[in-house]
Design brief:
By secondary structure, this protein is α+β, with helices and mostly antiparallel strands. Helices cover 28% and strands 27% of the residues. It has helices at 22-38, 45-59, 101-111, 189-195, 197-206, 211-226, and strands spanning 7-11, 78-84, 89-96, 116-118, 137-142, 148-154, 175-177, 181-187, 231-237, 242-246, 250-257, 260-266. The strands form two sheets. The protein has an eight-stranded mixed sheet with strand order 4-3-2-6-5-1-11-12. A four-stranded antiparallel sheet has the order 7-8-9-10, with helices on one face. The longest helix has 17 residues, at 22-38. The chain is globular.
């Protein structure tokens, strides 16, 4: 689907979402869209994706921020990444404990010296820890100047070994942004790292495949290689075309543009 700029697309994680409070999830997706979209008044797509993801980290019903799941030692280690497509600047953090890991990733991007920092933040937080259905959160955006941005944040996999890092802070895997596309992924990080789906969408779009075909091909590749129940993706290109796909039961997601807003949950919604 094509939308008029500026455009913001977000997801709350691909998964089963059984026993979840669907109405609340939909409300929070809608609020995250509003919070992120408000940033277009004074900022770029970069500020929009960071604000939207930061809000989802704060609400406690997604596997990110204060809703992050715990590792095998009962601790929380979070990953996040953010990228601005115009100059391909990138910032990411891994195995951190922070209220808003995506804002820590933004600091790395703005500092510009490095791309990925590990275990640099360890805040004292009250972690709620989600129990059902949720996964990684993410956002992609296109601003009025044509700048594309992507951001992804996660608490990882419940019961993971300490020090485990998934796809979310890795450019080309859990997130990616260029002058052509912005992409955010969700699912099983160990599988996503083997395919690099965000990079594949950019490559296919660079070969003039329509965005919807590129996304469909990547979801199909993940499913044919690893089976179902492990992946979701949202993408946005420089023309305002947006697409999403997942091989799980559900993926809460939403889009806001200058003429409206839409929130979805199940396949085909």
């Amino acid at each position: 689907m094509k939308f008029t700029v500026p455009v913001l697309v977000i997801h709350g994680g691909a998964g089963s979402w059984r026993n979840s409070a669907e109405d609340r999830v939909r409300r929070e997706i809608g609020e995250a869209l509003d919070r992120g979209y408000a940033e277009f008044r004074t900022g770029s797509s970069l500020e929009a994706v960071v604000e939207a993801v930061s809000y989802m980290e704060d609400v406690g019903i997604f596997n990110a921020g204060i809703g992050s799941v715990k590792n095998s030692e009962g601790q929380v280690e979070m990953d996040a990444g953010v990228m601005y497509g115009r100059d391909m600047s990138v910032g990411a953090v891994a195995s951190v404990r922070a209220k808003n890991p995506v804002r820590e990733a933004l600091k790395v991007l703005r500092d510009g010296k490095h791309a990925l920092m590990v275990r640099t933040v360890w805040e004292d937080l009250r972690i709620e820890g989600v129990e059902h259905g949720s996964d990684t959160v993410g956002a992609v955006a296109l601003d009025a100047e044509g700048g594309l941005s992507a951001a992804t944040s996660t608490g990882g996999i419940r019961g993971k070994l300490p020090g485990r890092v998934g796809d979310s802070p890795i450019p080309g895997a859990g997130f990616y942004a260029t002058s052509r596309v912005a992409v955010s992924c969700t699912g099983v990080g160990e599988l996503i790292l083997k395919i690099l789906p965000s990079k594949e969408v950019d490559m296919l779009r660079g070969m003039d495949f329509p965005l919807e075909e590129a996304v469909r091909a990547v979801v199909g590749k993940m499913t044919s290689t690893f089976g179902s129940g492990n992946f979701g993706i949202i993408a946005l290109d420089y023309q305002g075309n947006s697409s999403w796909g997942f091989n799980t039961e559900a993926m809460p997601r939403g889009v806001r543009w200058n003429q409206g807003k839409r929130v979805m949950f199940w396949e085909g919604s």
